[in-house]
Amino acid sequence: MSTILQNDLFIKAALSQQVERPPVWMMRQAGRFMPEYWEIKNKYSFLEMCKTPEIAADVTMLPVDLLGIDAAILFSDILVTGEAMGGDLSFEQGVGPRFSNPVRTWKDAENLSVDCLDKLQYVADAIHVIQQRLDGRIPLIGFAGAPFTILSYLVEGGSSRDFKLTKLMLNNEPELAHLILQKIADLTIAYLNMQIDAGVNAVQLFDSWANALSWNDYHTFSHKYNKYILANLKRTVPVISFAKGASVFAPVMAESNPDVISVDWNADLLNIKKSLPAGIAVQGNLDPFIMYADKPVIKAKIHELFERMRGENGFICNLGHGIMPDMPFDHVKYAVEVIREFRY
Ligand SMILES: Cc1c2[nH]c(c1CCC(=O)O)Cc1[nH]c(c(CCC(=O)O)c1C)Cc1[nH]c(c(CCC(=O)O)c1C)Cc1[nH]c(c(C)c1CCC(=O)O)C2
């Protein structure tokens, strides 16, 4: 690590070193649950916010200044790689992400571009601005979507409940799926290495919808590509592998040798950690929905997890999935305070 960080709890825990308390950050920590996010969001579209480095930096800094978390995460979206490859991406209020030109045929797949890193230059520019603003206070996490999760959005043309079209492709035309997955994986390697060169202090690969896959399909269509990506990253910063489904797939994820595995809320985190090779840290695994509960419940659930993880190096506190737009801001802030006051 070249930068000297004032608060390096997150990096230490990611590298399984001893810390006085677990570090905390939360997925979707910059977002619609914050009134200050809406002040910006009411002026720009979501993609304008992502693509304007000064605005992306302003939004990245909101939870740093308002919540006091131990790591910032770049404000962007996993779907920007799909857009750079040729996807016509939009985010409509109430509808969510949409690709208006879904990728379903060999011709569609062949048209996807891999040599398009220049289209993502705005992300490197944002990282430079954010690192100036952070000024070494806490680390910055970069990220990308894992190939299977990006494939699902490209094929479905947006969010999906059951991934019917994606699974139809995996079953009926596996070679077509492999062509698309390989292209996404190759761009993702270049993209994450670009973020590392631009100065992020860690990267996270989001395989949000891995839990849709069977055990064998997970190996064939997800793990294979995630492993290929991790093998080709500049391993100068910690790498976090996230899957909704990590409760089941964690031992497989470990084979791609990440520094950290981020676990949803279904599993017992200590059991997962003990099942992994020494030196792999875990992140998670609070049920995000505790944020709706009364404050004493929030505190009790955090302490329950921390007591369970007592004595374990290599534990980063996070939610098993992202903060929801209607979660009370003061509950999230309270959760961070409880974590920051905790000492082993
Ligand atoms: C699957 C996925 C996406 N995006 C992402 C994932 C993986 C994590 C996960 O599993 O949730 C990742 C993501 N999306 C966003 C970030 C920024 C950093 C952070 O604060 O975590 C990150 C890391 C901002 C965002 N990404 C999005 C928003 C909301 C945009 C808005 O303000 O309208 C934000 C703050 C939009 C988005 N982008 C995506 C969806 C499903 C949606 C929201 C749909 C909806 O609820 O309206 C795709």
TrEMBL record:
Site annotation (Transition state stabilizer) points to 77
Q: Which keywords are on file for this protein?
A: Cytoplasm, Decarboxylase, Lyase, Porphyrin biosynthesis
Q: What is its EC number?
A: 4.1.1.37
Query: What GO MF annotations does this protein's record show?
Result: uroporphyrinogen decarboxylase activity
Q: Which reaction does it catalyse?
A: uroporphyrinogen III + 4 H(+) = coproporphyrinogen III + 4 CO2
Location within or outside the cell: Cytoplasm
Domain (Uroporphyrinogen decarboxylase (URO-D)): residue spans on this chain: 23-32, 141-157
Output the superkingdom of the source species: Bacteria
**Major subcellular location class:** cytoplasm
State which pathway it belongs to.
Porphyrin-containing compound metabolism; protoporphyrin-IX biosynthesis; coproporphyrinogen-III from 5-aminolevulinate: step 4/4
PANTHER family registered for this protein in UniProt = METHYLTETRAHYDROFOLATE:HOMOCYSTEINE METHYLTRANSFERASE RELATED (PTHR21091), UROPORPHYRINOGEN DECARBOXYLASE (PTHR21091:SF169)
State the function annotated in the UniProt record: Catalyzes the decarboxylation of four acetate groups of uroporphyrinogen-III to yield coproporphyrinogen-III.
Family listed? Belongs to the uroporphyrinogen decarboxylase family.
Under what name is this protein listed?
Uroporphyrinogen decarboxylase
Its taxonomic placement starts with:
Bacteria, Pseudomonadati, Bacteroidota, Sphingobacteriia, Sphingobacteriales
